[in-house]
Amino acid sequence: ADGADLVVVCTPIGAYAAIGEAIAPRLRNGAIVSDVGSVKQTVVRDLGPHIPEGVHFVPAHPVAGTEHSGPEAGFAELFQGRWCILTPPPGTAPEAVEKVGELWRQAGMMLEHMTPAHHDHVLAITSHLPHLVAFSIVGTAADLEQDLRQEVIKFAASGFRDFTRIAASDPTMWRDIFLNNRHALLDVCGRLLEDISRLQRAIRWGEGEEIERLIEASREIRRSLIDANQA
Amino acid sequence: ADGADLVVVCTPIGAYAAIGEAIAPRLRNGAIVSDVGSVKQTVVRDLGPHIPEGVHFVPAHPVAGTEHSGPEAGFAELFQGRWCILTPPPGTAPEAVEKVGELWRQAGMMLEHMTPAHHDHVLAITSHLPHLVAFSIVGTAADLEQDLRQEVIKFAASGFRDFTRIAASDPTMWRDIFLNNRHALLDVCGRLLEDISRLQRAIRWGEGEEIERLIEASREIRRSLIDANQA
Hints:
Helix content of chain A: 40-55%
CATH superfamily of the largest domain in chain A: 6-phosphogluconate dehydrogenase C-terminal like domain
Number of helices of chain A: 9
Shape of chain A: elongated
CATH architecture of the largest domain in chain A: Orthogonal Bundle
Oligomer: homodimer
């Protein structure tokens, strides 16, 4: 960080406090500190207090990625047409926000501003909950006895496969995301469990119309995704 | 069905009893009746009693497909390298089983024999539960207020998107699958809810090692899928 114009922190979120402490004395006046973390409230909490007076702090979340991690996992089109969310604290210098935004715009991203709390709420439903569920369902299958497990692999094309891709994501990175967004995540997870229970109950009691109605509602969302070029 | 050598029933499973009744008087001696349904115990129960003496009954499940339904949803490579599961009742003429198997082999499929009960158990975890969960999680997102919903669409690339593809599947077809495999499905769904609760609890109580352990276990399954060419 010595004398750098811009420092972008790209580690699991759990390391941010230690990183903040380590880089703080080396940041020059007028430098910008940003990051790419998937949770923003705890980033502001953990990294914010270490940012010296005269250094700009522009937390960002380029919402793109695959199940692979690390510098080798990048590729030229990774950010193309995706959204980058900026969550600068109130009073941050607009030029600093603009510089970080321009960096991601050059990579092909569209920009969006949010408060850290709103960011964490939106990402809890679009990203953190799907990962929690994918890890769980793949784990449930893994726990089935060895014989059946071979068959889970064989017949994965029937739906299971779609869940395994994101379940291959990095454990440390996801441990930190879950722990750092626990309130929003537990809230949406509670909602999902209610919804699964409702469908489960409709199946147990043979309520065909209710089942069809629930399925129909979720098809509509898929159509919206296709219309928005995010499918 | 008049004078046909082979009749393959390809409708939602809920229609099988009525179809069996309608085609029974028209089946010629030596004909074969098969199907492509995703549940096999209730197919044997609903279609089996209508099959006349002298007609062969070979239920089959070609495990392949997309979220699209109907004849237009087919394409040349759909069945290539996938598995077809045959569940003929005990005592079925081997030549009839061989004929149905050969049909799917010619389409590029590999063959597997199972009892209807075992089939329904395996498919409950590999296909029916993933669909139940996908419908639910997409429904949970859809229920969030209109404002947030636009953002769910925008940031879907972060994980949510993987669930929406299978959630776009046909409501009538899936209503019938859920209702006709309810016992096996409710069993695996109960297991999943236990597993989600365990992860949820670990997140609430900040048990980082437990979270990492659960995520690590599910990565292993993904590797097996890649090794088996089913990823």
